Amino acid sequence: MTFLRNCWYLAGWSREVGPDTLLPRRLLDEPVVFYRNADGNIAALHDRCPHRFAPLSSGKLADGTLYCGYHGIGFGTDGQCVENPHGPIVRSLCVQAYPVRESQHGIWIWMGDPDRAEATPVPDLQHFHDVPETAYSNGYLHCAANYMLFVDNILDLTHADTLHPDTLGGGSYTRTKVKVSEHDKGMSLQWHCWDEVPQPNMRLNGFTADTADSWTEIEWQAPSIMTLRNGAVPAGTPREDGKNFLVAHIMTPETETTTHYFFAATRDFELANRELNDRIAATRASIFTREDKPMIELQQERMQGQDFWSLKPVLLRSDEGAVKVRRKVDALIHAETAGRKDAPQSEPANLAS
Amino acid sequence: MTFLRNCWYLAGWSREVGPDTLLPRRLLDEPVVFYRNADGNIAALHDRCPHRFAPLSSGKLADGTLYCGYHGIGFGTDGQCVENPHGPIVRSLCVQAYPVRESQHGIWIWMGDPDRAEATPVPDLQHFHDVPETAYSNGYLHCAANYMLFVDNILDLTHADTLHPDTLGGGSYTRTKVKVSEHDKGMSLQWHCWDEVPQPNMRLNGFTADTADSWTEIEWQAPSIMTLRNGAVPAGTPREDGKNFLVAHIMTPETETTTHYFFAATRDFELANRELNDRIAATRASIFTREDKPMIELQQERMQGQDFWSLKPVLLRSDEGAVKVRRKVDALIHAETAGRKDAPQSEPANLAS
Amino acid sequence: MTFLRNCWYLAGWSREVGPDTLLPRRLLDEPVVFYRNADGNIAALHDRCPHRFAPLSSGKLADGTLYCGYHGIGFGTDGQCVENPHGPIVRSLCVQAYPVRESQHGIWIWMGDPDRAEATPVPDLQHFHDVPETAYSNGYLHCAANYMLFVDNILDLTHADTLHPDTLGGGSYTRTKVKVSEHDKGMSLQWHCWDEVPQPNMRLNGFTADTADSWTEIEWQAPSIMTLRNGAVPAGTPREDGKNFLVAHIMTPETETTTHYFFAATRDFELANRELNDRIAATRASIFTREDKPMIELQQERMQGQDFWSLKPVLLRSDEGAVKVRRKVDALIHAETAGRKDAPQSEPANLAS
Known about the structure:
homotrimer; alpha+beta; Rieske Iron-sulfur Protein; Naphthalene 1,2-dioxygenase Alpha Subunit, Chain A, domain 1; 2 domains; four-stranded antiparallel β-sheet; 6 helices; 17 strands
């Protein structure tokens, strides 16, 4: 499968990599190891020693140098060998180093042309700068389905009425036409559910009015980053009075049929309420784990490895956003691969040749 | 693999589908969901929503309408959408519905040309109409081998002398030449073991004579339905005095290398003896589970995915019935596929195109 | 994958096959069953009945005849049918019999041209003739990696400095240049680590001097048999005063990506010390199981089914022996396959055609 390469992918949460951690993670079907150098800065190398192909993540970290656990060759964060117990340090003794950044509690990796990384800012998740710990949570799910199925899922929130009847259901998403608008940073989707039946989770959070004006606004950035703003007020009340939940859903391809699903959440009210924070985080993780993930994995299974379009899905009005996003991602990938005709599409050639 | 399509396959036992059951079952490598409509009649749909490919079997049944669990689209037993919360009901919003019947405690499905289903009667298993509960049992085994290996197994009963020494062994099958005769409904095989050593299970069932006249008569129907009549009398006694066990072995392909193995049993004596019924059922299930199934799965494993004939089996006299049946099935499949050259051989094209 | 065929492979340890054992073992991707005839002599047959392809290893052994457990056909140790309950014994009713030998506690099999087996002696492991039980141990590991990766591992002992820091580490192997010499029986590798830091396991075994002269000398025979002599003396002491550990590492391919790893050990001192023997055996098995096997299996995993050379390993001085051996094995296989152009490369054709 061809993935978009010239973009930043979320590879993990910062808390996953401590000072002594070697975190192996497959991304875009390439093995990568993440760790911190002596200054605590994150580094990412191709997770395969160029000598005998042992995973560097099975090695040892000492003073920011990553040593292969099989024959003891040491590499710097730029991928070049810095210690070779078996002879001279030759230029070919190196592994690919990936540009990495830490931002908004996450570790971001650039797996395309490294020269283009510097000029490209890490995606702005908007809501997650300077958030107090008591109003922040994040999570991770390893999922057995293609990443775009998870993007589809978020971009068609009508699924909530059927799949999440006890929390987000009630039919308001389905009765409301989503507004989709493309712009230079990506795509915006707006569900404005005016004068509607309150959703069950609003009741759980203390909403008592009979009818609600609620909104869910999604900002999508290519290829698979989405941030949501969601809130509600008693019908007819000024929206400014409402509380907002702020959520990010970020999917990074592991392989063609498996996905690293990252999510984070904050809010614009009761920022110091840790108990509330814990309760919201637990509910959200439970919904993803018990409702979205199993259904989407079953979807993947039923597709039996076939291409989404080749199966000729019957598209509905509610698919508008997801379809536009899929076409956009396909176009971006096409443009990218057209621009590097002879370049490797999957794993990079070993640099030691 | 190409399967015979214009025939009725046993898909399950009636008891497997209660009023609220959604039974997913892969048949001829297609996913199917079985359920009952509001009148209790059985229905079978292609188990994949045409919208986003979620399995319908993960949805919900209400008043005979099957709702996809992902976006709530409802389907009737004819496969047509009857409820679309997201817009108009268009003709393309449908899934394949399969002709189904209930007969002789079983659910039968037709996966070929639906126009030909009506004129084709469901296979007659002969012994299983109007059988009292106290003289009936059935069972199911999921097996990891091609369905024709299980057909071979029943059609060469000499295997019993080696594989089932404690119940059916003793050598009488091997010493007797089977009579094979083809007729317009299928194939008949007769083992008439006259003046023979009684089989161990006859002793267990109270047979005391030193020598026995025993018979096992098989009726095979294409592609993989077999009914057996088996009994014994003291040697020289009129056969009419004997008791008969009546058994069906029915194999339905799940995939090329896995099989739904159904079996049922009754008898023509002591019809009200429930204790006897339970004992016979337990013994039979034990033999299949502990002796036949493991050996045939090992056979499949040793064939390593290769075609049976390409491995050049050394055929013996006792293979006559199995070989004739294999050739007949091959001819039927060949005739069928020749008649629909451009038709799909495996999964049907999505109707929503 | 093409394996060298005209050579003796170690298939198991003699103790693995008792008088009633049927040992199934896949070798060079062919299923083989090992057993003993009535005289206790070892026999090896293709483990697939020519009739219906059941594994003969699921059958029964009686008076040296191996009976298929499915239909009772009996085979002699030459693979010819000796009993057919279903008709005449025809010549086609046979399975391939492999030349086998027992030697040096092991069962050896010849999977190439049988006419060449007689003239080829079983590999001499040198150290394992007439060894008392109290100074001998052997072991077996089933490993999920190509056999040549295990050969590489032994032929580059510098890995010990990194992978086995608590027993064989300290850097002496890495600081010493191995001497590699090819000869008509194979390849010799010599690590002579003079005036070096003693290895940790030497300390455990009572070595008290500050510096050591130690040696590890490997004799390699094609394709994957290695015997080692390893010992040490206080630096400057005559080598003749030293004690030697004598070890064999023998890898037999199961499939392209799995290996039967056999090892055996003895010594030239304290031959009656059973307690010492047990302690050494336990330590050695622990190192292989917890250090070598996992690392090499990870190596295999990272190679993702690609050919070793196609991945362009960066070769180091310490790879000299392994690279020469790989080229030698490739040349032997090439010579062999060139000589039998139309011959089967993997599983032999069924003889019953």
